[in-house]
Amino acid sequence: MSRPNRVVRPVHFEDFDGKDFERLVFALALRSGRWRSLEWYGEVGADLGRDIWGEKEENGETVCIQCANWKRLTAEKAKADIRKILKAPRGAPDILVIAAGGTVSATARDAIKGYAAAQGIEQCHVWSGVDLEERIRFYAESLLRRFCDGEQFPDDPKAIESFSRGVACPLCDPARAEAVERVRVLERGKRSDLATKAFYAKRDAIRRDFANRGLSGSGGQLAQIIDAKREATQKGLEGLVAAGTELAEGCCDEHRNSVLQRTEEDVRASCRAALDSSASWIRDHMRRAHLGDGAASSAVASERSKIAGMERFTLRDLELAELHMRSSRE
Ligand SMILES: [Zn+2]
């Protein structure tokens, strides 16, 4: 690796508090490996002696990263951490990394590695502040710069994930998430008003047409109105899917999944509401025309199967959009 020709000042990790240090190490881990899972335990991890726990994507090996931002890491401190890790529910990891912010003497390093091996931990790496800095510069230079410039790293692991990837998920930022939700509700209301207006206009046109032909109140008129209702619902479903997938595209994995799931629920709810409303129109009409419950039930059943088909196709579109999103990210 050729280094840029400029003065690189050493990072003073000792100026950062324990949490900031852990955030930085977590961001480094995210950037430097591919993981099936990678979790930062923050506050809750301290008692169990593991700050970051991951599972490698390629082979499922478990990795425990213990952060020790000590000016001078002692073997005793590291051994105490290792004892805690072994006592925790997950037990020994395949790989243990002790990430120190300060110096680690050669003697301490050997003692720590020897102790880990004796406890059945196959691989143990001890990074001094210099080693850590080297890694961060290699994998995550831009993060280090932001970190040293005093930029506040997010608190939440998911937010650190998108932050460290340079992709800002709108839902990871609480203020933006709130704005997104407000816009979503407004848009939904606006769309549904427009759809309702369009449907009423169409319904009135159908009624006028039948009245002109002297056929008002006939089953044919009802059938056309119900079709128009279904078309309006279909348009609404398309709008839901478009808005949901557009939002999901810009989100982190977790929020993408939750947005898609919510969209799916909205689709199902819309279809249920559409059926309820059509069914009551149908029953009403049948009652007024003295057509009996049997005719009403079979007309409702037929409408139910049409709406179920619409729901199925819409959910398939959503699934295809999701597959497309996945493949374009990998
Ligand atoms: Zn997110």
What are its keywords?
binds zinc ion, 330 residues, Trna Endonuclease, Chain: A, domain 1, alpha/beta, disordered N terminus, single chain
**Unique bound compounds:** zinc ion
Strands across the major sheet, in which order?
1-2-3-4-5
H and E order: HEHEEHEHEHHHHHH
Beta-strand proportion? 5-15%
- For the secondary structure, the number of strands is 5
What are the segments in which pLDDT stays under 50 over at least 5 consecutive residues? 1-7
Assembly state (oligomeric): single chain
Q: Report mean pLDDT, rounded to a whole number.
A: 85
Share of residues in helices:
55-70%
Cα separation of the termini: 27 Å
- Nearest-angstrom radius of gyration? 30 Å
SS-based class: alpha/beta
Global morphology: elongated
Question: How would a crystallographer describe the biggest sheet?
Answer: 5 strands, mixed
Enumerate how many helices there are, as a single number: 10
Number of folding domains?
Answer: 2
